[in-house]
């Protein structure tokens, strides 16, 4: 009888892929983690306890069959592991890189709770699909049969692309409209290359294009084409625009030169890494080189900004967040990576105003945590008389994103939105009150995770297919 390859968590410790030294990685935009070797991937996958109730799976938005593909990896059956992995996840190699596993699957691993250190789920997931691409196991999109129906998708981010992939595999004609010149949304222009190298995203874009998905890029809905035109051209429309409107800063001097949006800063950096000409970077407006940089915010976007500023050669990089470390929304792993690279975090600190034109300093007020608010989080309170000024030549606003006013931008008063400005839609299907119109991802949820957008895109595609099949059946009677 073959030796049981699993449940080695007692004898084998948790080992992440080798991480490049901070003194080296802080000078380039290459990914910071190396790949597992095959033997190491098998060894780490074998630490899975194959527990009866896999909390890793239940806490994954896609409900990936994690124990199954870990076992197959441990047994050296890597192609089968890939097949199981991609059955529930459109972009597993992307999720393996950018999902906050410490808050999702790995953070709920049973052996982590028992003190043995979590299974390195994300690193194994990345390894499986990277190997699948290298070995040619990732097959082209070839529908068994073409269908006459078409679906228009507004937004080429993870949700829109996941829906496009699922619909196209069933033979539906798919057109994706996006305002940018490259598909991928925040995966292309928002997330830095040291977390997600861009050839990974471009490879998926090409797979979709080669598979028959039509991309209409540099196409701003409401300006270059109307929503009504898109709606009349397709049997269904999916709104997958994401949320790009930046929450603004208040206080004196908030409009000073040198105070910039996180999305602009990150987009300029990513465009530069594509080899594009970026005038705002060349002029110094969106370039941190030689500057004292202050980033305001505590989410993953803030972590991306501080680590990008380090790589651009900033003189110093500080991050202000109004709560403490334990209450920050961003990944603790990303925070630790930033600290290793020289970023200084000022916890319990919030901007009160700004001095100088262009900006020369942030007026900071010290905070303490008071009673919990309606969400259960402790509310920050100002400590009177504890203000100080933080020197700054470049201030980056990373306070989160809000939805644009789509009913006004697209002249669609019937498109219902919530009091937060997000589109009203069924969470299970994405259906809105407008016939044949669906909405998914951040434009429904508010700023969220890539993995949730993928989940929404897949669910919405299934709902559209059900609708199209029902219509076909009625027409055949």
Automatic annotation (TrEMBL):
Domain FAD/NAD(P)-binding: 151-457
UniProt keyword annotation of Transferase present: no
InterPro entries reported for this sequence: DPD_II, FAD/NAD-bd_sf, FAD/NAD-binding_dom, GltD-like, Helical_ferredxn
Pfam families reported for this sequence: Fer4_20, Pyr_redox_2
Annotated keywords: 4Fe-4S, Iron, Iron-sulfur, Metal-binding, Oxidoreductase
Keyword Metal-binding among record annotations: yes
Protein name, per record: Glutamate synthase (NADPH) small subunit
Gene3D superfamilies found in the cross-reference section: Alpha-helical ferredoxin (1.10.1060.10), FAD/NAD(P)-binding domain (3.50.50.60)
GO terms for MF: 4 iron, 4 sulfur cluster binding; metal ion binding; oxidoreductase activity
Source organism phylogeny: Bacteria, Pseudomonadati, Pseudomonadota, Alphaproteobacteria, Rhodobacterales
Dihydroprymidine dehydrogenase domain residues: 25-136
PANTHER family: GLUTAMATE SYNTHASE [NADPH] SMALL CHAIN, GLUTAMATE SYNTHASE [NADPH] SMALL CHAIN-RELATED
């Amino acid at each position: 009888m073959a030796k049981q390859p699993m449940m080695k968590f007692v004898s084998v410790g948790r080992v992440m892929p080798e991480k490049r030294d901070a003194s080296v990685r802080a000078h380039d935009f290459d990914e910071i983690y190396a790949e597992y070797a095959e033997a190491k991937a098998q060894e780490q996958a074998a630490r899975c306890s194959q527990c009866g109730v896999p909390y890793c799976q239940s806490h994954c938005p896609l409900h990936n069959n994690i124990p199954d593909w870990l076992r197959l990896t441990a047994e050296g059956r890597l192609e089968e592991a890939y097949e199981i992995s991609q059955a529930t996840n459109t972009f597993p190699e992307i999720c393996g890189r950018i999902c906050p596993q410490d808050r999702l699957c790995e953070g709920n691993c049973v052996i982590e709770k028992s003190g043995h250190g979590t299974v390195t789920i994300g690193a194994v997931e990345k390894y499986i699909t990277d190997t699948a691409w290298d070995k040619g196991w990732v097959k082209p999109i070839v529908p068994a049969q073409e269908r006459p129906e078409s679906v228009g998708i507004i937004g080429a981010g993870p949700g829109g692309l996941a829906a496009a992939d699922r619909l196209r595999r069933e033979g539906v004609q798919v057109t994706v409209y996006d305002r940018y010149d490259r598909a991928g949304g925040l995966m292309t222009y928002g997330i830095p290359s040291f977390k997600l190298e861009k050839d990974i995203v471009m490879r998926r874009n090409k797979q979709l294009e080669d598979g028959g998905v039509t991309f209409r890029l540099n196409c701003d809905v409401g300006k270059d084409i109307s929503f009504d035109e898109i709606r009349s051209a397709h049997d269904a429309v999916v709104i997958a625009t994401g949320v790009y409107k930046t929450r603004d800063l208040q206080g004196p001097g908030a409009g000073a030169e040198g105070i910039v949006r996180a999305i602009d800063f990150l987009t300029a950096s990513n465009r530069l890494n594509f080899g594009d000409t970026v005038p705002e970077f060349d002029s110094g407006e969106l370039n941190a080189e030689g500057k004292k940089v202050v980033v305001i915010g505590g989410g993953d976007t803030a972590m991306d900004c501080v680590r990008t500023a380090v790589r651009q050669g900033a003189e110093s990089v500080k991050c202000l967040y109004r709560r403490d470390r334990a209450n920050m929304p961003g990944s603790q792993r990303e925070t630790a990576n930033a600290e290793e690279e020289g970023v200084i975090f000022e916890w319990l600190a919030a901007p009160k105003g700004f001095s100088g034109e262009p900006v020369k300093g942030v007026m900071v007020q010290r905070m303490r945590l008071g009673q919990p608010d309606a969400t259960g989080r402790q509310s920050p309170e100002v400590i009177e008389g504890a203000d100080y000024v933080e020197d700054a030549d470049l201030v980056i606003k990373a306070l989160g994103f809000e939805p644009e006013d789509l009913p006004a931008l697209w002249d669609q008063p019937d498109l219902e939105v919530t009091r937060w400005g997000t589109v009203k839609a069924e969470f299970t299907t994405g259906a809105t009150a407008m016939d044949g119109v669906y909405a998914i991802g951040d434009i429904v949820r508010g700023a969220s995770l890539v993995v949730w957008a993928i989940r929404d895109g897949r669910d919405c595609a299934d709902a559209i297919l059900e609708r199209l099949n029902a219509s076909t059946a009625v027409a055949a009677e």
